[in-house]
Amino acid sequence: MYNSYFKKRAILKTQAEIEILRKANAIVMEILLRLKEEVKPGVSAWEFEELALSLCEKKGVKPAFKGYRGYPYALCVSINEEIVHGMPKKEKVLKEGDLVSFDFGVVYEGYVGDAALTVGVGKISEKAERLMKVTEEALYKGIEKAYFGNKIGDISFAIQSHVEKHGFNVIKEFVGHGVGRSLHEPPEVPNWGRPGRGPKIEIGMVLAIEPMVSAGDPRVEILVDGWTAVTKDRSLAAHFEHSIAITPKGPEILSRV
User: Fold this and answer.
1) Are 167 and 138 in contact (CB under 8 A)?
2) What is the pLDDT of residues 93-148, one digit of tens each?
3) How far apart are CA 97 and CA 122, in angstroms?
4) How many domains does one find in the chain?
5) Would you say 154 is a known binding-site residue?
6) The CATH number of the domain where 88 resides is what?
Protein backbone atom coordinates (compact mmCIF):
# COMPACT_ATOMS: atom_id res chain seq x y z
CA MET A 1 0.00 0.00 0.00
CA TYR A 2 1.32 3.43 -0.93
CA ASN A 3 1.58 6.38 1.45
CA SER A 4 -1.84 8.05 1.19
CA TYR A 5 -3.74 7.61 4.44
CA PHE A 6 -1.28 8.81 7.07
CA LYS A 7 -3.23 11.87 8.19
CA LYS A 8 -6.74 10.38 8.02
CA ARG A 9 -8.41 9.23 11.21
CA ALA A 10 -8.54 5.53 12.04
CA ILE A 11 -11.86 3.68 11.96
CA LEU A 12 -12.17 2.23 15.46
CA LYS A 13 -13.82 -1.18 15.82
CA THR A 14 -16.29 -2.43 18.41
CA GLN A 15 -15.66 -5.67 20.27
CA ALA A 16 -18.25 -7.38 18.06
CA GLU A 17 -16.41 -6.23 14.95
CA ILE A 18 -13.10 -7.42 16.37
CA GLU A 19 -14.64 -10.87 16.92
CA ILE A 20 -15.57 -11.03 13.22
CA LEU A 21 -12.10 -9.81 12.24
CA ARG A 22 -10.56 -12.47 14.46
CA LYS A 23 -12.45 -15.17 12.52
CA ALA A 24 -11.55 -13.60 9.18
CA ASN A 25 -7.87 -13.48 10.04
CA ALA A 26 -7.81 -16.99 11.48
CA ILE A 27 -9.13 -18.24 8.13
CA VAL A 28 -6.40 -16.30 6.32
CA MET A 29 -3.70 -17.87 8.45
CA GLU A 30 -5.18 -21.37 8.08
CA ILE A 31 -4.97 -20.97 4.31
CA LEU A 32 -1.46 -19.52 4.41
CA LEU A 33 -0.22 -22.41 6.54
CA ARG A 34 -1.84 -24.85 4.12
CA LEU A 35 -0.02 -23.14 1.23
CA LYS A 36 3.23 -23.35 3.21
CA GLU A 37 2.85 -27.13 3.40
CA GLU A 38 2.93 -27.32 -0.40
CA VAL A 39 6.14 -25.31 -0.84
CA LYS A 40 8.75 -27.43 -2.64
CA PRO A 41 10.82 -27.31 -5.81
CA GLY A 42 8.82 -27.77 -9.00
CA VAL A 43 5.53 -26.27 -7.79
CA SER A 44 4.23 -23.35 -9.85
CA ALA A 45 2.84 -20.14 -8.38
CA TRP A 46 -0.43 -20.87 -10.18
CA GLU A 47 -0.91 -24.08 -8.17
CA PHE A 48 -0.92 -21.98 -4.98
CA GLU A 49 -3.53 -19.67 -6.51
CA GLU A 50 -5.75 -22.64 -7.33
CA LEU A 51 -5.35 -24.07 -3.83
CA ALA A 52 -6.14 -20.71 -2.20
CA LEU A 53 -9.31 -20.33 -4.30
CA SER A 54 -10.39 -23.88 -3.47
CA LEU A 55 -9.90 -23.30 0.25
CA CYS A 56 -11.84 -20.02 0.08
CA GLU A 57 -14.74 -21.88 -1.50
CA LYS A 58 -14.65 -24.60 1.16
CA LYS A 59 -14.65 -22.04 3.96
CA GLY A 60 -17.35 -19.88 2.39
CA VAL A 61 -15.25 -16.72 2.11
CA LYS A 62 -14.29 -14.43 -0.73
CA PRO A 63 -10.68 -13.66 -1.67
CA ALA A 64 -10.09 -10.03 -0.68
CA PHE A 65 -7.43 -9.23 -3.26
CA LYS A 66 -9.14 -10.49 -6.42
CA GLY A 67 -10.40 -7.46 -8.32
CA TYR A 68 -9.10 -5.02 -5.71
CA ARG A 69 -7.86 -1.97 -7.62
CA GLY A 70 -7.84 -4.24 -10.66
CA TYR A 71 -5.57 -6.97 -9.27
CA PRO A 72 -6.59 -10.12 -11.19
CA TYR A 73 -5.70 -12.86 -8.68
CA ALA A 74 -6.65 -14.03 -5.19
CA LEU A 75 -3.08 -14.47 -3.99
CA CYS A 76 0.22 -12.60 -4.21
CA VAL A 77 3.18 -14.95 -4.75
CA SER A 78 6.51 -13.11 -4.64
CA ILE A 79 9.75 -15.00 -5.27
CA ASN A 80 13.29 -13.94 -4.31
CA GLU A 81 13.76 -10.28 -5.36
CA GLU A 82 9.98 -9.80 -5.68
CA ILE A 83 8.94 -7.81 -2.61
CA VAL A 84 5.17 -7.81 -2.89
CA HIS A 85 2.29 -8.13 -5.39
CA GLY A 86 3.99 -10.92 -7.31
CA MET A 87 1.49 -12.54 -9.67
CA PRO A 88 0.78 -16.28 -9.36
CA LYS A 89 1.57 -17.25 -12.94
CA LYS A 90 2.11 -20.76 -14.29
CA GLU A 91 5.57 -19.96 -15.60
CA LYS A 92 6.79 -19.02 -12.11
CA VAL A 93 8.08 -22.33 -10.76
CA LEU A 94 9.78 -22.75 -7.39
CA LYS A 95 13.31 -24.08 -7.29
CA GLU A 96 15.64 -25.19 -4.52
CA GLY A 97 16.98 -22.27 -2.53
CA ASP A 98 14.23 -19.78 -3.42
CA LEU A 99 12.36 -17.59 -0.96
CA VAL A 100 8.63 -17.33 -1.62
CA SER A 101 6.31 -14.84 0.06
CA PHE A 102 2.54 -15.33 0.20
CA ASP A 103 0.31 -12.32 0.85
CA PHE A 104 -3.38 -13.16 1.17
CA GLY A 105 -6.69 -11.84 2.41
CA VAL A 106 -10.32 -12.92 2.69
CA VAL A 107 -13.66 -11.23 3.22
CA TYR A 108 -15.73 -12.85 5.98
CA GLU A 109 -19.11 -11.39 6.93
CA GLY A 110 -18.10 -8.11 5.33
CA TYR A 111 -14.74 -7.77 7.10
CA VAL A 112 -11.25 -8.32 5.73
CA GLY A 113 -8.53 -10.57 7.10
CA ASP A 114 -4.98 -9.90 5.85
CA ALA A 115 -1.65 -11.61 6.57
CA ALA A 116 1.59 -12.67 4.89
CA LEU A 117 4.56 -14.96 5.40
CA THR A 118 7.79 -15.97 3.69
CA VAL A 119 8.96 -19.56 3.23
CA GLY A 120 12.24 -21.09 2.14
CA VAL A 121 12.15 -23.64 -0.67
CA GLY A 122 14.16 -26.70 0.30
CA LYS A 123 17.67 -25.88 1.51
CA ILE A 124 18.25 -22.11 1.46
CA SER A 125 21.36 -20.03 2.03
CA GLU A 126 22.39 -18.85 5.48
CA LYS A 127 21.78 -15.25 4.38
CA ALA A 128 18.24 -16.07 3.19
CA GLU A 129 17.53 -17.86 6.47
CA ARG A 130 18.76 -14.85 8.43
CA LEU A 131 16.73 -12.44 6.29
CA MET A 132 13.54 -14.38 7.00
CA LYS A 133 14.31 -14.62 10.71
CA VAL A 134 15.09 -10.92 11.11
CA THR A 135 11.99 -9.86 9.14
CA GLU A 136 9.69 -12.01 11.24
CA GLU A 137 11.38 -10.83 14.44
CA ALA A 138 10.90 -7.22 13.30
CA LEU A 139 7.18 -7.86 12.92
CA TYR A 140 6.93 -8.93 16.56
CA LYS A 141 9.14 -6.05 17.69
CA GLY A 142 6.63 -3.72 16.06
CA ILE A 143 3.65 -5.50 17.60
CA GLU A 144 5.25 -5.14 21.05
CA LYS A 145 4.99 -1.35 20.67
CA ALA A 146 1.34 -1.37 19.56
CA TYR A 147 -0.09 -0.25 22.90
CA PHE A 148 -2.79 2.33 23.60
CA GLY A 149 -1.13 5.68 24.19
CA ASN A 150 1.93 4.97 22.06
CA LYS A 151 2.31 6.46 18.58
CA ILE A 152 2.45 4.71 15.21
CA GLY A 153 6.06 5.92 14.98
CA ASP A 154 6.93 3.72 17.96
CA ILE A 155 5.93 0.66 15.91
CA SER A 156 7.81 1.96 12.88
CA PHE A 157 10.99 2.72 14.81
CA ALA A 158 11.02 -0.71 16.48
CA ILE A 159 10.79 -2.44 13.10
CA GLN A 160 13.43 -0.30 11.40
CA SER A 161 15.86 -0.49 14.31
CA HIS A 162 15.76 -4.28 14.45
CA VAL A 163 16.16 -4.68 10.69
CA GLU A 164 19.05 -2.25 10.37
CA LYS A 165 20.81 -3.62 13.44
CA HIS A 166 21.15 -6.88 11.52
CA GLY A 167 22.48 -5.28 8.34
CA PHE A 168 19.28 -5.32 6.26
CA ASN A 169 17.01 -2.54 4.98
CA VAL A 170 13.30 -1.85 5.25
CA ILE A 171 11.31 -1.14 2.11
CA LYS A 172 9.85 2.37 2.41
CA GLU A 173 7.51 2.46 -0.60
CA PHE A 174 5.03 0.05 0.99
CA VAL A 175 3.55 0.22 4.46
CA GLY A 176 1.18 -1.44 6.89
CA HIS A 177 -2.33 -0.07 7.33
CA GLY A 178 -5.61 -0.20 9.15
CA VAL A 179 -7.96 -2.98 8.10
CA GLY A 180 -11.67 -3.60 8.62
CA ARG A 181 -14.53 -3.40 6.17
CA SER A 182 -11.92 -2.26 3.65
CA LEU A 183 -8.59 -3.88 2.92
CA HIS A 184 -6.76 -0.57 3.35
CA GLU A 185 -7.93 1.87 6.00
CA PRO A 186 -6.12 4.65 7.89
CA PRO A 187 -3.74 4.91 9.58
CA GLU A 188 -0.66 3.95 7.60
CA VAL A 189 1.93 1.96 9.56
CA PRO A 190 5.34 2.63 7.95
CA ASN A 191 8.22 0.26 8.63
CA TRP A 192 10.52 3.19 9.36
CA GLY A 193 10.20 6.30 11.44
CA ARG A 194 10.87 8.07 14.72
CA PRO A 195 9.44 7.17 18.13
CA GLY A 196 6.73 9.44 19.47
CA ARG A 197 5.64 10.54 15.99
CA GLY A 198 2.53 9.89 13.95
CA PRO A 199 -1.07 9.14 14.99
CA LYS A 200 -1.81 8.05 18.53
CA ILE A 201 -2.56 4.35 18.92
CA GLU A 202 -6.16 3.98 20.12
CA ILE A 203 -8.22 1.16 21.58
CA GLY A 204 -10.36 -0.32 18.79
CA MET A 205 -7.77 0.12 16.06
CA VAL A 206 -7.13 -2.93 13.90
CA LEU A 207 -3.77 -2.71 12.15
CA ALA A 208 -2.05 -4.85 9.55
CA ILE A 209 1.64 -4.58 10.42
CA GLU A 210 3.86 -5.86 7.62
CA PRO A 211 7.61 -5.34 7.45
CA MET A 212 9.06 -5.88 3.99
CA VAL A 213 12.83 -6.18 4.09
CA SER A 214 15.63 -6.22 1.51
CA ALA A 215 18.94 -8.00 1.90
CA GLY A 216 20.48 -5.23 -0.23
CA ASP A 217 19.25 -2.05 -1.88
CA PRO A 218 15.84 -1.03 -0.42
CA ARG A 219 14.83 0.90 -3.55
CA VAL A 220 11.95 -0.51 -5.56
CA GLU A 221 11.10 -1.06 -9.22
CA ILE A 222 7.68 -2.03 -10.56
CA LEU A 223 7.74 -4.57 -13.38
CA VAL A 224 5.93 -4.13 -16.68
CA ASP A 225 2.90 -6.04 -15.36
CA GLY A 226 2.18 -2.93 -13.31
CA TRP A 227 2.00 -4.86 -10.04
CA THR A 228 5.12 -6.82 -9.17
CA ALA A 229 7.49 -4.79 -6.97
CA VAL A 230 11.13 -5.92 -6.98
CA THR A 231 14.30 -4.73 -5.29
CA LYS A 232 16.24 -2.41 -7.59
CA ASP A 233 19.44 -4.45 -7.27
CA ARG A 234 17.47 -7.76 -7.39
CA SER A 235 18.55 -8.67 -3.87
CA LEU A 236 16.41 -11.05 -1.81
CA ALA A 237 13.34 -9.75 -0.02
CA ALA A 238 11.14 -11.12 2.77
CA HIS A 239 7.66 -10.15 4.00
CA PHE A 240 5.73 -11.05 7.15
CA GLU A 241 2.37 -9.62 8.23
CA HIS A 242 -0.12 -9.97 11.07
CA SER A 243 -3.37 -8.15 11.64
CA ILE A 244 -3.72 -7.06 15.27
CA ALA A 245 -6.38 -5.43 17.46
CA ILE A 246 -5.52 -2.73 20.00
CA THR A 247 -7.25 -3.69 23.25
CA PRO A 248 -7.09 -2.28 26.80
CA LYS A 249 -4.78 -5.20 27.67
CA GLY A 250 -2.46 -4.55 24.74
CA PRO A 251 -2.10 -5.76 21.14
CA GLU A 252 -3.88 -8.97 20.20
CA ILE A 253 -2.76 -10.89 17.13
CA LEU A 254 -5.89 -11.80 15.16
CA SER A 255 -4.20 -13.72 12.35
CA ARG A 256 -3.51 -16.83 14.40
CA VAL A 257 -5.10 -20.21 13.97
Assistant:
1) no
2) 999 999 999 999 999 999 999 999 999 999 999 999 999 999 999 999 999 999 99
3) 6
4) 1
5) no
6) 3.90.230.10
